[in-house]
Amino acid sequence: MSRSLSRRACRPLALLAVLLLPTACSLFDDEDRLEGTRIPVRGERSTSITEPLPEGEEEAAANAGPALSFPSADAVVAPTGGAPLPPPRELEAWTQTNAVPSHNAGHLSGPASLQRIWTADAGTGNSDEARITSAPVAADGRIFTLDAAAEVRAFASGTDSALLYESL
User: Fold this and answer.
1) How far apart are CA 139 and CA 157, in angstroms?
2) Element housing 164 (H / E)
3) 107-158 pLDDT per residue, tens
């Protein structure tokens, strides 16, 4: 009887030890923090869309999150009477999914109506066996694709023949 009683008494202590074990690692952490610039990840820093950033801060601002502001004097009222927008700007390259690291490309300019200006065979599409794992990217007048068969192609914009083909 006393043996089962002692086992019952040990169960809560064992459970407590298991729950507290992950927090014990921080008690013995005497490592120094790495040097370098800290980038706010929750948008603590407000960045103006209409003013250029100081040299070297563009990437940090792109990763800073969605906390964006702009002076109301430069704002353009949306045609639907919605929120004011910063002046539209052109995006010169689409180098990753959603254009920029913050996934917020801002107020982009474009034509009044869209039309297809280019098409090409970019390789194998999705199937039950394989999926396309990367969206096309564009830079310096070239478009790069990765298909479901892990084949990379590069096209010059406006042509349908591949400049580069590489099977990964």
Assistant:
1) 10
2) strand 162-167
3) 888 888 888 888 888 899 999 999 998 888 888 889 899 999 999 999 997 7
